[in-house]
Amino acid sequence: MSLQGSSRASFGAAAQKGFKGKLPLVYPREMGPNALKYVQEVVESGLTSDIVDRFERTFAKRMGVKHCIGTPGCTAALSVLATALKIAPGDEVVFSSITDFGTVLGFVRENVIPVFADSAPGSINVAATTVEAVLSDRTRAIVVVHKTGLVCDMDPIVALAKRRGITLIEDVCQATFSSYKGNLAGTLGDAAAFSFDSEKTVGSDIGGCLITNNDALAEAARLMGHSRAGEMRAGLGRVHVAPGYAYRMPMCTAAITLAQLEIADRNVEQRDRIIRLLYRKLAEIPGITPLTIPAYQDVFSCWMAGFNIDPKQFRISVDEFAAQVAEAGIGGAGTGRYYLMPAALPFLTKAASEGEFPFSQPPASRRYAYSADSCPNARDFLESFIRFSTFNDRYTEEHCAIAAQIVRSVADRNRK
């Protein structure tokens, strides 16, 4: 049910249709040279191509893992993981508080109770300390999000999950091919989910996947996510042992994604180089603090650029600052308060306050509440945060200079 005065959200190219400015926009995307060849193969094969299998093998090899399972998107990949883990209604899963609804949806559909870990002070990402603070004897999994392509400090989180015997999942939708201490994001936990939506780093028409080295989890994911939990029984035929999904990656999506993987290394190398330059320039502007790139992050596969302002130094609000930056030429610049999940999911607030299943007792063991105040670090961070998801691999040194000058000019003319 829509809220009064609201409008339906749009995604991909439609969401950025009205953007304009002095900097390169995400669309139209560069397509891998073999994209048309692979799509044509699907058509000429009469839909008998093994292109999905080839994509899965290619991505698994690229990530250095045993299993890759293609899905229609990252939301679907995480939904498949939620079903494969066989978590009971009323059990808890801990999530990063700053993320997108797609991270949470599949688990909510499995009647899991989401618990949000605060971000580390001054950070967009969670830390082991903030995750541990919300663990309970009902916690069955931890889902950490590498927001904007910045990798969480994973060694302490991995150690925490192992010590407590809790499954650790990485949401790598914005961090494909980012690297942590020489290890690719997504290979540090028990499983990981990726997005290949058109605006993402490896931008296909849509698409996603999950990866894991766990044989049993991979088999459960294929059964629950691809086969609708269908098994063949002699004398009867197909029976469904659970309410599974048909979240299979379409052939044409696999074809385009496979082609996009062939240009990904160059794409990521450019993103890493340019975002580091841009953030160095932004850091020189008084009152502006770009996102911090940790020393442990070898490769920053940046999908979204962002910075915080010091409101005490300016006579305009954060929203006005973002609007002026967008008007001056950084297309799509804006605030990101909607990424604060405890405040952005009113259906959860309602269900928890009214004791709807699974918040009823049982299966819940206590009362839950969701609000911005439950994650004060994340709330305060987003209150002064300005992001532009139009950052892309077509940025050059000149574009970095233009972007920094735009932010500097807005800052200088609005200082107290």
Summed over residues and divided by their number, the pLDDT gives a mean of: 95
CATH architecture classification name of the domain at 35-262: 3-Layer(aba) Sandwich
DSSP strand tally = 16
CATH class bucket of the domain at 35-262: Alpha Beta
Strand content: 15-25%
| Spatial shape | globular
Percent in helix: 25-40%
Major β-sheet profile: 7 strands, mixed
What is the CA–CA distance across the termini? 44 Å
Structural class, from secondary structure content?
alpha/beta
Radius of gyration equals: 22 Å
Structure explained in plain terms:
By secondary structure, the chain is an alpha/beta fold. The protein has a domain at 35-262: Aspartate Aminotransferase, domain 2 (3-Layer(aba) Sandwich). It is 37% helix and 16% strand. The strands form 4 sheets. Strands 1-9-8-5-4-2-3 form a 7-stranded mixed sheet, with helices on both faces. The N and C termini lie far apart (44 Å). The model has no long low-confidence stretch (mean pLDDT 95).
